[in-house]
Task: structure prediction
Amino acid sequence: MHPLLQRLSILRSRHFPSAEAFLATRHITLELSGPAADQALFDVHYNGVYLPGIWLGYIGYGSRVTAHISPHRRDFWVHIPVHGRFESAMGRQRIEADEQHGIVTSPSDVNVMKFAPGAGRLSLCIKGDALTRQLAALIDSEPRTALEFAPEVDLRRGFGLSLACILRGAAADLERGDWLLCPSLASRFEQTIMSALLLSQPSNYTRELRDCTAAIAPRDVGRVVDYMHANLPSPITLTDLVRESGVAGRTLIKHFRDFKGIPPMRYLRDLRLKRVRAELESGKSRRVHDSALRWGFVHAGRFSLEYRKRFGESPSATLARVRVR
Result:
């Protein structure tokens, strides 16, 4: 299988010392751990994109290698196998990763990763301070202890399956364009990924995140809805909504669902879909693509599916109907 994100190549080399020196600047010590014939297959692919709070990329080495990842930068990592197998060991914990199991690592100890020949993975690196700020927004207080996730992710169902689809979809989108390089879209993507990880992957804050004790009045939900309407063309994050509502993020999500039937970010997406439809039906927009971009939809295929699901027809059908009229 060809490596992903080739268009965003950061390092491509068959020269081990060059790869070793490059990764050392990122607090990763690399070792060739196979026989000589295996070592000759070394061919590192380090592709990806750096965003303010995260890094998303593809990593493959070709040959059997061992990587020692230092917790110095306090980063969190999510690893989704693309092909082949690898394992992660932190202290006494040892996790095998394959097409059915991914890995989440927390910066509590050195992570020793061993890769089989030909193994490749999608990796998401989240800066510790960015994830801590998102956690604080959700629980409405400063975290008392260091965040630590359960290390194994089941990629066959639930959150693990959704996470793998999101990361693969983002990688595929990046192959076709630089939409994640737009600051507002990058921020929205980061917020989605961090909130999903905190709310769905078991951690030492799971109980606190799920324990919704503060009450929220309908007027506070109304305040958030008013904020959405007033700022609909602009990037809106969960942190913005938490600040506007004045309650913890976990409380806002639960009670927004209670009063509106869906989570706040989905409600926001539906509002934007309605704005696109209104533009198309009014005849003010000549192209579906322009209206979709104006209201924050950058993936044409996904937007069309959401639009059809919401309104029972494709956006191009709406535009064609208006033109005929």
The first strand starts at residue 9 and ends at 13.
